[in-house]
Fold each of these.
Amino acid sequence: MSSTTRPPAPSSDDPRPAWWVGAVGYEVYVRSFADADGDGIGDLPGLRTRLEHLAELGVDVVWLTPITPSPQRDHGYDVADYLGVEPAYGDLDELTGLLEDAHALGLKVLMDLVPNHTSDQHAWFLDSRSSRGAEHRDFYVWRDPAPDGGPPNNWVSHFGGPAWTFDAATGQYYMHLFLPEQPDLNWAEPRVRAAFEDILTAWFERGVDGVRIDVAHSLVEDPAFRDNPLLTNVSLAAATSVFERFAHIHDLDQPGVVDIYRDWRRIADAYGAVLLGEVYVLDAAKLRRYVTDDALHAAFAFATIEASWDATDIRDQLRPFVETCEDRLAWPLSSHDAPHAATRFGGGELGARRSLAYLTLLCCLPGVPFLYQGDELGLGDGVLPPGVAEDPIALRLEDVPGRDPARTPMLWEPSQGFGFTTGTPWLPFGTNHDASHTVAAQTADPTSQLERTRALLHARRALPALHGRTSTTWLLEDGPVIAIERGEEVLVALHVGDGEGPATLVLPEHARLVVATDDRTVLIDGELTLPEDAAVIVELEAGTEVEGRL
Ligand code: NOJ
Ligand code: MG
C-alpha cells in the first residue's frame, strides 16, 4: 500500500495543534459503519476492525457521530448520558481500545458533543419536569403559556411543528428546536455551563482528541423570546418546510454563544484538543465570529453542500468563506444530514466522477476537507424500499425522503451483508448498491474511486503548500473552470462540465501533473487539456507567474 510521510507543519505562531493543520477528516456514521456482533447495528468493535481502511486511505482525523447512551429517537443526537457509551455500540473499555488503536495508526478521533439539547430521558430532564421547584428545573427552557394558552411564541422546530411542548403536570411549555424528545438546554443557567466544562474535561482526559459540536450556533436564545418574523405568509400547520419560512433572528446565532466556546477553548488548549463547530451559518462574516484564536478552532463551511454543479455557484458560495475565515474551516464533501455528493451532482458514474473532482478542489482549499463514509467509493444515496423509514424527519413529515438514503450501511465486501453485518442491517442496503461499490472490489484497481481518492489524499499530504495559511489566489473569475493557486507552488483546476467539452489552460512550461481525476487529462509543455467533470492538481516551480496566463 502506498503511503506518504507528512511534512512537518509550517512553523508559525499558529495556536492550533499541528496535527489539525493540513489534516484530512472523515465522518463515521457509527451505526452504519461496521457491525461486529451481528445485531445489524454498527458498533465500536466493528469500527476498530476497519480503522486500517481509514489510515490507508490517507485520513488523519475521524469524527464519530454520537456514541453516548440514547433512546435513538434522533440516532444519538438525543443524549441520555454524556459520559457513557451506548450499549448497542460498546462500553467505555471499547472506547479506550478504539482510541488506542486509532492513535497507533496515527489517527485522531473527534467525538460528537450535543450541547443544545438532551434526550427527554436524560436524568436532568426527568428531574426538571418533575416540579417547578426541581433542582434541575432551570437546566431547560420553561415558559408560561401565551395568554390564549398556546405556545409562548411562534418558534418552530427544525423537524416540523412548534418548538414548544406543553407539560400538563407543571403547567408550562418547554422549548425544543428539534423533536419534543430533544428538550433544549438553558445556556443562561451557569450550572449547565459548568456541567459541560466537566463533560469536555472528562472526554479529553480519556484521550479523545477533540469534539464536533452539534448545532453550535443554537445554544443561546433571545432573552425576551420574541417572535421570529415570518418570511412568507404560511400557516404553521403546513409544517414541512415551515422552519425555512422564518427569519431566525431570535432563536439562532444569538450574541453570547461564542463566549461559551471561549471557555471551552481554554479547556481544549490544555489538552491539545480541537473544537470543530457545526455552525450552520451560511454568511461567512457571521461564521468568522465563531472561529478565532480564542474560540472554535474551525467550523464546517456548509456552502460546499449548498452549491450545485455550476462553476459560478461553487465560486460564489465557497470564495467568501476562504476570504473571511482563512483556514479555520472544514469542508464537508457530504454528511449524514444531506445527500452524498455523488447524488447531488447527478448520480451514477457521472455523480461519482464529479464527487472526486470536487473533493480535489476541497483538498486544495485552506482548511480541512471532510469525507463522509462511502464518498471514497463513489457511493450515492441508497434507494430504499417504502416503509423502512428510521429518520424522524421522514417519519414526521409527509412526502419527505429524510436522511435515511445517506445513512445506508457501508459496503465492505461483495457478500451477503456486504461485510457490514452477519445479521439484518438496521436500515437496508440501497437496492442500487452492489458488489462494485465495495471496498474489496475497488482495492488495488487504480481506476477505482477508492484508489483515486487514496492517491489524492496522499498527494495532498505531501504538498506543504496545501497545509495551513499559504495564500489562496482565485485565478479565473468566470467560465466553467475554477482555478486556484496555493502559495506559488500548487495549482488546482476543476472543470465543472457545461457540455462544451475539454478546456485548455496554458500553464508555465515546467508545470507537473500531481493528480488527475480523469485519465484523458493531458499536460505537455505547460498546455493542459482538462476534460469536463474532472480536476487536476499541478505543481509549479515556486515563483513562476500564473496569473493572466490561463
Ligand atoms: C445536527 C445533526 O447533524 C443532525 O443529524 C441532528 O438531527 C441535529 N443536529 C439535531 O441534533
Ligand atoms: Mg452491532
Amino acid sequence: MHVLIDELRETHNLPDEAIRQLLETGDGSAVQYLHDSAREISQGAFGRTVKLRALIEWSNVCRNDCLYCGIRRSNTGVTRYTLAKDEILACCEHAWNLGLKTFVLQGGENPAAAKALAPTVAEMRASWPEAAITLSLGELPYDTYALLRRSGANRYLLRHESASPRLYARLHPAEMRLENRLACLRTLRELGYETGAGMMVGAPFQTVEDLVEDLRFLHDFQPDMVGVGPFVPHPDTPLGTSPAGSVSLTLRIYSILRLMLPHANIPSTTALSSLRADARTAGILAGANVLMPNFTPLRVRASYDLYSGKNASGVEAEENLQRIQQELNKIQYSYV
Ligand code: SAH
C-alpha cells in the first residue's frame, strides 16, 4: 500500500483499482502513511497555515428538490429568506475588518435572484478591490454566469455532487441532469472563474466505485477548489433516516485529493465538524488547507439548514474565529 501512496504522491494519479484499494484498506499503518504524506505536501505548498473564507449564506430560496438537502423546495417547514444588499455588504465589512479577504456567497438555486445579485457583486468589488469573491449559487444560465463574472466575481463553487450517472439520478429529481451540471462547470471555467467541484461522502446508495468515479472526475477536471464533506441526514428530507457519512473516509479522501491536486484549495468542511468535535483540525492534518467561518447574520442562520446539526454552533463570527485560532494553536498552525 505504501508503494501506491508514493506513486500517487509522485505522479498525482493512480489506476482506479488502486484508488479503490486506498479507499477500502483496513491497514491502519497505510492510512497513517497516506495522511502523513498528504500533510507533508500540504505543508510544502501552504506552510502550517490555513486560509479563511467568510461564508455568507445569501438565500435559502431554492427551485431544486435534491433529496438530501434541507432547503429543498418541497420542505415547507423552512422559513425562506434572501439577504438584502446592505446586509450582504455589512457581512463583508465585518469579515474584512477581521482580516478575511475572501467572501463566499452561497445560496439556493434561484436564477432570477442570482441575476439580480449582480449590482451587489459590483459594489463588493468596488469596495474591496483586493478581495476574492466566490459564488456558490447552483446552475445558472450562461448569461448570468457571465454577468456575475463581469460584475467582479472571480470564483465559483459548484459541487458536481456525484460523477456517477446512476447515483446522481438517485439523489436528484429527474429534471436535474448530471450533464447540465458538468456543462455548467466547463462554462464557469471558460468564463475565467476559478472553479470548484466536489461531492458528499457516504451519501445514501453511494458505493466505493462511485467515489472512485468522483476522484477520477476530479483528477481529470483539475478544479482549483474541491468541496467534500460527509453526508449528514436532515430529518425533513426523503433521505432523513439514512446514516451519516463516515468522518474517517472523508479524511482519507482529503488526503487522496491533496496528493492528486497538490495546489488545490480544499476546505475542511462544516459538515465534517458537525459530526466530530475535533474534525476540523483532523481535516487540516489530513491535507485540507481552508476553513470557512460563518458570517451569515444570526437572524437567519438557523434557516439555512442544509443538514441536521449544522447550526449547533450558531455563534458570532468573532467567537468562531477565536475557537478556530485555539484549535489551530493546538496543532501549531495559524490562519492567514
Ligand atoms: N445551491 C448551490 C449550493 C448548494 S448547498 C448549489 O447547487 O451548488 C452546498 C452543498 O451542501 C451542496 O453542494 C451539497 O453537496 C451540500 N449538502 C446539501 N445537503 C447536504 C446534506 N444533507 N449533508 C451534507 N451536505 C449537504
Amino acid sequence: MVRDPVDNSSIITIERHILEEQAFHPKATGVLTNILYDLALAGKVIASKTSRAGLAEILGRTEDINIQGETVMKLDRFADLTISRLTDHTGRLAGLASEENAEFMPIPDKYPMGKYLLVFDPLDGSSNVDYNMPIGTIFGIYKRTGEDGPVSVSEFLQPGRKLVASGYIAYGTSTMFVYTAGHGVHGFTLDPHVGEFLLSHPDIKIPPAKYFSVNLGYQLYWSKGVQAYTEYLQGRGGGIKGLSLRYIGTLVSDFHRNLLAGGVFYYPADSKDPQLPTGKLRLLYEAAPLAFIAEQAGGYASDGLGPILDVKPSSLHHRTPLYIGNKDLVEKVEEFIRDLDSSGSL
Ligand code: AHG
C-alpha cells in the first residue's frame, strides 16, 4: 500500500493525547486536562528562552537568595514567573507552591479559584545553565483537601500517593514533556518547526538497568549501607555485573536518561552539610512527582527506608534522600541500609 504523503493521522499531539486520557475518567470535567496544556505551553515558552539564553543576556545571577539559600539565576526567575502567570488566572488552581519561594502562592483575589494545587520546581539544575548543560522543570498536581475558602499550607502537605498527575519538561538537545495521570507514562518531543509537542515515547517502561547516577564526589560522607550499595552497583562482590556511571547533576536529565535506558539515580543523606542531614532534594517539588512517574513506568522510588510516595511532607521545603529507578535496584538499597546502618537512619 502506498502511504498518503499528507496523512497525518499517526501524528498524536499532546492535546489529543491528554484529551484521550481524559476518557479514563468518566467524571472528568476537563480541568486537569487544561492544567496539563497550560504546563505544556509554559514548557514551550521556557524552552524558547533557554535556547536563546546567551543571546538574550539572561545568563548570570540576580542578587536574590532563594529560600534554599542559593543564588537565584535569572532563568529560574523567568521560569518561575512563566509558570505562575500562565496558571494563576485560569480558575483551575487553588494555589501554587514553587521551589523558588518560601511560601505558597494563593490565587490572587481578582481571579477565580479552582480545586487543584500545583507544586513545581521551575528550573531544576539551574547551576548548570552557565555551562550549556541540560536543565528541566518538574511539576505535581494535587486536588485540594479543603472544600472552599482560602487555601492553607497544610493542604499542600500531601504524600505523593495523592498526586493526580505529575511530570517534567526536559530542556536538552530537544525539549520533551513527560507526564503521568495514573495511566502509564507518556513522552512528547517538541517539534520546533510546528511548535507542538508530539507523542514520541508512548507508555514508557523502564528497561533493565544500564547506568547508575550519583555524585561520587560525596562518597566519603555516606553511611556504610550506601557505600556498600555503591560497590554493589559497581559489580564488586559479584552480585551484579557492574553498571556504567552517568551523572549530569540535573535531576530531570539524570532521571530521564535512566527512565529510557534503565538505571538508578540516588542522592543520599550525607554528613557533608550539617544543615542538610537528610540530603539535598525536595520531597514536594522533585522527589514525589518523579516517584509517581517511576512507579507508573514499572520502577520505584525510596528514601532508603520505604516508598517516597508514602512520605508526608512536614513542610513545603522538606528535603529527603532519594533512590529512584529500576525497582530491583532501589529495593536493594533498602536492604543495604537496613542491614548496615544500625539506626536505619536517613
Ligand atoms: P540546582 O537546581 O541548584 O542546580 O540543584 C540541582 C539538584 C538536582 O537537580 C541535582 O540532581 C542535584 O541538585 C545535584 O547536586 P550536586 O551538585 O550536589 O551533585
Amino acid sequence: MSSLKYIDELAKNREISAYKLEKILADDECNEYLFALANATRKQYAKSEVHLKALIEISNICQKECFYCGLRKPNKELKRYKMSAYEIIGYAKQAASSGYKTIVLQSGESQAFSDELMCEILREIKNTGMQITLSLGEKSYKQYLMYKDAGADRYLLRIETTNKALYKKFHPNMSLKNRIKCLVNLKNLGYETGSGLLIGLPGYTYKIMAKDLLFLKKYDFDMVGIGPFIPSKNTPLSNEKVANIKLVLKANAITRLMLVDINIPATTALESIDRQNGRKMALLSGANVIMPSITSGKYHELYSLYPGKFRLDMSVENTYKNFNDMLFDIGEKVSLSNGNSLRYNERMGL
Ligand code: 5AD
Ligand code: SF4
C-alpha cells in the first residue's frame, strides 16, 4: 500500500506513529513526493538561506571504541594528532575573515585538551565575534558548564541509535542512558543542542529507524545531523555494507517535516558516498546547513572517521566562495545571520 497518505498526515500534524513511519520508510514509491514536501518546508521556514559553518577537526585522539569508527582507540594504525591552541585560533581567525559566522570544533573523545586550555581557546575565538559549536563527545555537566561560560554556544552529540541492543553491541563501555543525560544537560545549560543518527549499521531495521526518528522529535532538538554508515578500515565493521543513501535522505526529509524550524546539516558522509550530488540532494530533501572542513590536508586525512571523507583542497576563503557559488547555482544563498536555528531563537525568546 502506498505511503502517500501517511506522508500527508506527517506533513499536516508534524507527528506520526512509529508504525506509520515504518511504512513510509519501507515504501520507495513516494520518495520524490516526500523530498519535495521537505524541501518546500525548508524554504518556507529557512527562506532559501543556507548556513555555512566552518569545521575544524582539532584532534583525532579518542578513548572510546565505537565499532564503526576509524578513530577508535584500538586502531593503532592511525597516527594521532592534536592541534596547538595557536593553530586552532589561527584557523578560526581565517574563518571569520572569510565570512563564516560559526566555527565548529570537533574531536574524538579525550582529555587531550585540558578544560582550562579549551576554555582559553574558546575565549580567544569568541573575540572574533563568531558563534562556537562544539562536538567533543560526552563530558560532565561541570565541563559543559565551563565551556558555556567560556563562550561555547552550541553542542553536537549524536545519539547514533536509540536501540538498546544495537547501542550496546557497537559502543563498548558506553551507555545510552549517559548519552541521553549529556543531551539533557546540554539543553538545560542553554546550549543550542544538536543530536543525530548513524543510519544503516549492521542489524538496523525500519522499525529501529522509526523509533530513532521519533526520539529526535520527542527531545525537540535544535539541530539534527543524520549520516550513512560507511565501513571504515581497521575497525570490526570494515567488511560490512555501506548504508543506503536514499534511506538517509528520507530520514532527513522526515526530520524536516517533524521539526520544521531546526537546523539540519547536509552531512559530509553523504557527500563522501556521492561526490557530485550528495550535498545538493540533502539540501533538496530538507537540509539547510553545510559544514565544510577547513582543516588543512595533513590533519584532515588523519581525521578518518570513515574512508573518502570529503574536503575541498582549497584555502579557507576559496572554500567559502566555492560553496557560495554552488548555492547560487541552485537558487539558494548563504545566510548572513549568526547561524542559530529558528527553533532555538523561539525557544529562548531571542
Ligand atoms: N560512518 C559514518 N559515520 C561515522 N561516524 C563515525 N564513524 C562513522 C562511519 N564509519 C560518525 C558518528 C559520530 C560522528 C562524529 O561521526 O555518527 O557521531
Ligand atoms: Fe571516538 Fe566519536 Fe569515533 Fe566513537 S565515534 S570512536 S567517540 S571519535
